[in-house]
Amino acid sequence: MEPQKKIALEAKQLHKAFYNPNKVSILDGVDLTVHQGETVAIMGRSGEGKSTLLQILGTLDSACKGSLTILDQAVTRYNKSKIRNCNLAFVFQSFHLLDDYTALENILLPASIGRHSIEAGSPAYVRGCELLEHVGLSDRAHFNTKLLSGGEKQRVAIARALCNDPEIILADEPSGNLDRQTAHLIHSLLLTFAKERNKSLIVVTHDEELAALCDTRYQLENHKLYPQ
Amino acid sequence: MFELSVARKYLTPRWRQLSVSIISLISILVIALVVWLIVVFFSVTNGLEKGWVNKLIALTSPIRVTPTEAYYNSYYYLVDGISANSDYATKSIHEKLSADNSSSYDPSSDEEAPKYWSKPDLDSNGQLKDLVKEAYNAIQNAGSSPRPYEVTTSNLRLRLIRNKSEPAGHKETQAFLSQPILLGSLDPKNQAMEQTLIPVSVNDLNNLYTMLSVGPEQNTEEAPDFIAQTSVKLLREKRSAFLKTVAIKEPVQGESPSKKITITKAEVKKDASPLWVHTDANHEYILPYDAEFGDGILVPKAFREAGVLVGDRGYISYYAPTTSSVQEQRLPIYVAGFYDSGIIPIGGKLVIANSQLVSLIRSSHQQEETANTNGINVRFDDLNQADSIKEKIQAGFKAAGVDKYWRAETYKEYEFTKDLLQQLKSDKTLFTLISTIIIIVACSNIISMLIILVNDKKVEIGILRSMGASCWSIAAIFGTCGVVMGVLGSLTGTVAAVITLNNIDLLISFLSKIQGHNAFNPVFYGETLPNEISVEALLFVIMSTAMISLVAGVVPAIKASLLRPSAILRSE
Question: Are A53 and A15 in contact (CB under 8 A)?
């Protein structure tokens, strides 16, 4: 019998609504459990609330109601930053790299925020270089990110996401701005990383191909999450 | 540190954030300008104050101990007036100090002391307390050196004999300068005198040599024919006493009228005793006495501006009672130097002479004793110790039981300086308040710049938050930007101020040129504007700009930290 996998993230009865001025419900009792090493795809129509759900799961936004537990820690307003820095990582559709920094500096930012030394030769620095090599951009380490192509930027973003060795990677349309070929490369990178390193991956996507590669798929519809 | 490295990136000027860079630069320049102004102003005021205080103390002392009413009413002081041994005259502090006994009164021969006098103040052995010596001991025990001073009033008359060059040839003229003066005693050990003494000029030397040939028989107020008899030979003889080398423009060898002799350059012999004020081997000041000239006196620089030169001769007169009437007495004197009295009110009238001369005049005419006429100057090196030394002296007086006879005052409390020093302090306080307001206005630019920066960096804030940067970290980044700008501004301003202060004469000549007259009146400020970098001002501006910049950075920093990362990232 396969041993019971540890729960990485558990969301219970998440509710989210905006008031403008009338109440517009976005999530209405969403439950989600993600195990360690599990890859999860969340699909749904545009405007359904996929990104909002991902941001709530990533502690960037708060639910109006419901609870969120990440690696056995209940998320409160006081531990959000620490959880984000140590256990979570984001990969965005528009990459969100910092323009004034080089590729390597971008990758090392989470370590720097976590007060780890990023001096040349430090463990964080060595890890950053390894990740850069893994995404095939060793020769771009000291390039300003403005000079990189979209695919290269996203690869840097993936390397950055792995810098602090987080347990959960949250990706919001990671290949939304990329051509088919580059999108394939990004998908395989993300999934390989997740599988090889036993990380949980929650990806919000319209891409059926990417969703098909994930262990579990959900559909967000009528403000609720339905397994597929 | 993460926050510092991000703040550094934000503060580095870039084309992409041109508006932020320009506003930052302007903010830094405005702060630098304000800091420059404050440091220069405070340093010049500090220099002026220090210069004034030093001159003031050079003529008086950091602490003065003066007798109180109780002293003048004491048996100890009054008893000399009925004593034959002291010639039926009360004694000055100096005389009391050099006397062997606390009183010269002899009960067997002198008349009985009046009943209404206060009782003699006796010590534990039943002896009359020596109030002056006890005070001296207390002052010395406080680690400072006491010197008695005396001031008296008299009249000064100087005869100014000059060689005037006219188209028709040289002409001897004479003029007289008469003035009531305050005559103060020279303290030979007062090293601070050096700061006030004005060096002897070539004109002074020429005048001194000319006057050297004036014998006593010629020292009358008749027409000054004797000048024509001055000879090169005589001059050479006289000058050999104290000049090592002297360049004399000498058109005719041998006997030659003085009008054709001019000293152009001279060097004083080592260990010589010239006829002007100088120091001896022990660094004690000497006002020379010359058998022909009389006593040398030091006069304020206002006299020099009125045309007086070293060597000018005259007399000091006072009225002394004789058996039949009150008669004018004259003592011959000559000008042996000038001092710069600064801006103290008595500065224009105070002439300094040897203490023997002052004592002679004081004792010869009736004079009301006040704190300004007789007392003890207390000297020590560190001016900042004035208040604590005063306390020690007062404690010493109390311990010796003479505290009711003596009053100790620091230079800040002197009647003639109190107003000036208080005014300077008020001016400084007022300018400190104005400076604070100017710094606040200058630093308020930082708020505008940081708000623009926060708006510019919204997405980055969202990204950093998504990577785990806390609200505090975000606030710290923008707060650091504010403080760094403030500190950069103050450092730039400080460097500019130091450069300005080192070249202040250039600035003054520029200001004078613009105004068409002296920007700073030498009567008040001296020949060059003094300045001493004010450490207090530096600390004040650096601390206050850092603090105010931090406060200015707080509002934008809070704004930045309260931005919701989800809202920022969603809008992108």
Answer: no
B570:A51 CB<8 A: yes
Helices within B99-201 (DSSP H only): 131-141
Quote the tokens at residue A228.
């597929």
Contacts of A39 (CB under 8 A, 6+ apart): A191, A194, A195, A200, A201, A203, A213, A214, A215, A216
The pLDDT, as a whole number, for residue B443 is: 83
Tell me how far the alpha carbon of residue B257 is from its chain's centroid: 43
Q: Kindly give the residue spans of alpha helices, DSSP state H, lying in B406-457.
A: 415-456
Q: What is the pLDDT of residue B252?
A: 37
> Is the Cβ pair B459, A96 closer than 8 Å?
yes
Across B17-21, B132-136, B491-495, least confident range: B17-21
Cβ neighbors of A193 (< 8 A, separation 6 or more) are: A134, A158, A162, A169, A199
Q: Which of B109-113, B244-248, B407-411 has the lowest mean pLDDT?
A: B244-248
Mean pLDDT: which of A40-44, A77-81, B89-93, B263-267 is highest?
A40-44
- The kind and range of the H/E element at A102 are none
Q: How confident is the model at residue B132 (pLDDT cuts 50, 70, 90)?
A: very high
Contact A170, A139 (CB under 8 A): no
DSSP state of A110: H
Q: What is the dihedral of CA B364, B329, B184, B221, to 10 degrees?
A: 180
Write the residue in A85, A97, A112 that is nearest to B5 by C-beta: A112
What is the C-alpha to C-alpha distance for residues B362 and B373, in angstroms, rounded to an integer?
A: 9
Q: Which two tokens stand for residue B504?
A: 């202040």
Q: How far apart are CA B371 and CA B376, in angstroms?
A: 10
In chain A, how many H helices and how many E strands?
Answer: 7, 10
Give residue for tokens 């034959």: B84
Residue from A14, A20, A25, A24 nearest A64 by CA: A14
- Given pLDDT bands bounded at 50, 70 and 90, which one contains residue B311? confident
Residues of chain A with pLDDT below 70 are 1-3
Determine contact: A95 vs chain B, CB below 8 A: no
What is the Cα–Cα distance from B53 to B417, expressed in whole angstroms?
9
What distance, in Å, lies between the first and last C-alpha atoms of chain B? 28
Query: Structure pTM?
Result: 0.68
The pairing of strands A216-221 and A39-44 is parallel
Q: In which band, very low, low, confident or very high, does the pLDDT at B257 lie, cut at 50, 70 and 90?
A: very low
Residue in chain A closest to B7 (alpha carbons) equals: A100
Confidence of residue B519 (pLDDT cuts 50, 70, 90): low
CB B501 within 8 A of CB B37: no
Residues of B in contact with A98 (CB under 8 A): 460, 463
Count of H-run helices and E-run strands, chain B: 18, 15
How far are the Cα atoms of B154, B317, B319 from residue B157, in angstroms, in the given order? 10, 8, 14
Contact yes or no for B439/B548 (Cβ under 8 A): yes
Chain B residues within 8 Å of chain A (Cβ atoms): 2, 5, 9, 12, 14, 16, 459-460, 462-471, 473, 564-566, 569-570, 572
- What is the CB-side half-sphere exposure of residue A217 using CA atoms within 13 A? 14
What pLDDT was estimated at residue B371? 57
Query: So what's the pLDDT on residue B197?
Result: 85
| Closest of B292, B288, B300, B371 to residue B332, by C-alpha | B292
What is the C-alpha to C-alpha distance for residues B365 and B213, in angstroms, rounded to an integer? 34
Banded model confidence at residue B217, pLDDT cuts 50, 70, 90: low
User: B123: Cβ–Cβ under 8 A, 6 or more apart, which residues?
Assistant: B129, B401
For residue B231, pLDDT over 80 is answered with no
Residue B369 is predicted with a pLDDT of 65
